[in-house]
Amino acid sequence: xxxxxxxxxxxxxxxxxxxxxxxxxxxxxxxxxxxxxxxxxxxxxxxxxxxxxxxxxxxxxxxxxxxxxxxxxxxxxxxxxxxxxxxxxxxxxxxxxxxxxxxxxxxxxxxxxxxxxxxxxxxxxxxxxxxxxxxxxxxxxxxxxxxxxxxxxxxxxxxxxxxxxxxxxxxxxxxxxxxxxxxxxxxxxxxxxxxxxxxxxxxxxxxxxxxxxxxxxxxxxxxxxxxxxxxxxxxxxxxxxxxxxxxxxxxxxxxxxxxxxxxxxxxxxxxxxxxxxxxxxxxxxxxxxxxxxxxxxxxxxxxxxxxxxxxxxxxxxxxxxxxxxxxxxx
Length: 330
Ligand code: A3P
Hints:
Layout: H1 3-13, H2 17-24, E1 28-30, E2 36-40, E3 43-46, H3 47-59, E4 67-71, H4 77-88, H5 103-106, H6 109-112, H7 116-123, E5 138-141, H8 145-152, E6 158-163, H9 166-177, H10 190-198, H11 207-220, E7 225-229, H12 230-235, H13 237-247, H14 254-259, H15 261-268, H16 271-276, H17 278-282, H18 309-323
Parallel strand pairs: 4-5, 4-6, 6-7
Antiparallel strand pairs: 1-2, 2-3
Helix pairs in contact: 3-7, 3-8
The structure holds adenosine-3'-5'-diphosphate.
């Protein structure tokens, strides 16, 4: 039996009885990479992610200063993690001090900003969070807002959400989840992945429900939920990073703006820079995934190389219908 199968089997055994009973009562399906998924509180989770979500909701003790980076998979999570980390810690690692020892140069952003449900509560019902004690603590999630808020209870944490064009997200999703890491062998065709995605069956999907949960949250409580777009970050990084810093309560000073500190952060977190680092070329994450798989093209509009006009029309219609009257344009 190969290593991957062994670890999957071990993990199956780790599902607790409570979750097994719950799963038996939930709608179930298979996502396009062949994983069993269950729909809980309107969102599709793998069984282990669901177990982690429940542990998080029950056991997480939020601090009002916590910052949570949220996204649908493949919407620019890695970039947003790097930017948020660099912004919040910029006085510690500015060029005047220790630029060459910046943690982003030796660790992948997913290690510096751990997922609540795909990392911390995935491996333990009550993970030890003491090593994240420096304030503000920075965590991330792919959960929709209502699921996240259950774990945040009534705290006043700040939540930053990154959204992306649905078609580019889908193409990126297919490359990441539906091909084998070792040889790029296709697990599920692009067409099949497209169909599942349109049915709403994707990890942490339906896409539109998740996006809308954060969009509405940002309208209701703009001081605590910031809604960002991948395309805007690419088009106007300085404006967007300023917006992010203001929201996080660490605005750039005039001196910082003039001394180029903002551009330094943009360069540090760029796809070109991060993907060229040794850690991201050859390193692996805690779950065995190659760090390099998080960095691909990073383009706006790559979907044009994959979707037929019929597919484009179908997904545009779905998005139009789901987002109508929300004020959100994707
Ligand atoms: P593509 O597959 O379209 O290239 P996530 O971080 O949520 O997994 O999203 C991955 C997507 O973001 C990939 O898109 C990847 O190339 C892109 N990406 C990763 N790091 C980036 C960065 N620093 N700047 C811009 N895009 C980045």
